[in-house]
Amino acid sequence: MAEPQSWSSSTPRLVPPPPPEGRVRRGLRRAMDRSAAAGILSRPLLGRLPLRRWVPQDLHSYMDYKGGVATLAAGVLSGDPVAKSAGVALGATILGVSALTDYRMSLTKLIPIEAHEIADHAFGAAAILAPFVLGYAKRRPWVAAIHVVVGVTSILASLVTDHRCQTGMHLGGELATDPGVIGA
Fold this sequence. Notes:
The longest helix has 21 residues, at 57-77. The protein starts with 22 loop residues before the first helix and ends in a 19-residue tail after the last strand. The strands form 2 sheets. It has a two-stranded antiparallel sheet with strand order 1-4. Strands 2-3 form a two-stranded parallel sheet. By secondary structure, the chain is mostly helical. Helix 2 runs antiparallel to helix 3 and helix 2 packs antiparallel against helix 5 (141-159). Residues 177-184 have low confidence and may be disordered. It is built from 5 helices and 4 strands. It is 49% helix and 4% strand.
């Protein structure tokens, strides 16, 4: 039997390069990044929020976009004019805020991360209350369920997200680029 071709003992062994990283793996690695490359840590809201910082900012951003699309789509597909209006208003709001927030997964950086966090709480409360206040919870219970679940998820995720900005923009307009200054 022929012996497989091998390196001679006089040739140094070279370590082959790692296989190219796929888009999914690269996206996951980036979403779980908590290093300084992930951004500048936000100031805690009310001196206490978030409660714990275990959800990475990029994962939270992805959840915001997904929740906005789900809220909007549920409203549009409901067939109920009130549920449709609520879904479009809620979904467009969170998508717009997410697209304009100072974090890595936005189109432009106009809204400070702390203001986005406040918007997450307001959006969550509005999404939870809308089906009952506007009266479409009984007519379209599946739309109401989606809105409530997205609202609860938004609030809970915001309470435990490792909020980080990219440019150092914070509420009050000041710029801070040193993570140590804001309690890293």
